[in-house]
Amino acid sequence: TKTIEIKDLDFYYGDFQALENVTFDIPENKVTALIGPSGCGKSTFLRTINRMNDLIDGTRVDGDVIVEGDDIYKDEIDVVELRKEVGMVFQEPNPFPKSIYDNIAYGPRAHGITDTEKLDEIVENSLKHAALWDEVDDRLDQSAIGISGGQQQRLCIARALAVDPDILLMDEPTSALDPVATAKIEDLIDDLKEEYTIVIVTHSMQQAARISDYTAFFLMGEVIEHGPTQKIFEKP
Ligand code: ADP
Ligand code: ADP
């Protein structure tokens, strides 16, 4: 199945064209890696999937980005709902300066959940899902800024999972982390793909080879190659 279909996608920052004719499908419940040199459009592409680029003035999109059946730039869609279905994690861990608990509860509360027991359950499940619960269950009321960088990044993953998305976008999620924290996130990504469709930007070919099932190779705003990761990497 394909959760995300991209057809003839062009993207412009003002007069500058950052993506040209991008066409490929992102498979469901797999890890898709976006690789290629710096500045070739990987982040831009990632941010078209949840319409994050809309926040930048003067951007323009041509073509189709179809997420779970909706053509998200052409159909009338609810962007808040889209961003609930499509979670995002960034390069720098960016927890809110709030307690661990409130970081996770933030999204569900914004979507109208107020029941304390329900929120407790979501917080626990999300932290367990992100392989963080055992490390923080005794200090949920403490500031998220006080935990390690790797823990903060897993917290950000838990925060994304708390609103029950189908798709998880990750923009170089391990670039700011040490090797041990990176390995934990990679293991976690491997576990999460059973339940989520994951799209990850990485500048590391090794990381793409280790954790992805499908790879799209970007070069100067175009996808020059895409396919199962094994095939992409076995080529001479
Ligand atoms: P990276 O390649 O590490 O993802 P960049 O340096 O390309 O990061 O971009 C960092 C931030 O600066 C992003 O938010 C990006 O949108 C913005 N940015 C990058 N290039 C430009 C540009 N030419 N004009 C304005 N903003 C830019
Ligand atoms: P990558 O993720 O592959 O490093 P980006 O998607 O960040 O590439 O950037 C692709 C191109 O778009 C680069 O030339 C970058 O400078 C430009 N760009 C990125 N963000 C902006 C922005 N906000 N405004 C203008 N140009 C941008």
TrEMBL record:
Keywords: ATP-binding, Cell membrane, Membrane, Nucleotide-binding, Phosphate transport, Translocase, Transport. It comes from the Bacteria. Residues 4-236 form the ABC transporter domain. GO terms for biological process: phosphate ion transmembrane transport. It is found in: Cell inner membrane. One of its GO terms (cellular component) is plasma membrane. It is a peripheral membrane protein. GO terms for molecular function: ATP binding; ATP hydrolysis activity; phosphate transmembrane transporter activity. InterPro entries: AAA+_ATPase, ABC_transporter-like_ATP-bd, ABC_transporter-like_CS, P-loop_NTPase, PstB-like. Part of the ABC transporter complex PstSACB involved in phosphate import. Responsible for energy coupling to the transport system. This is Phosphate transport system ATP-binding protein.
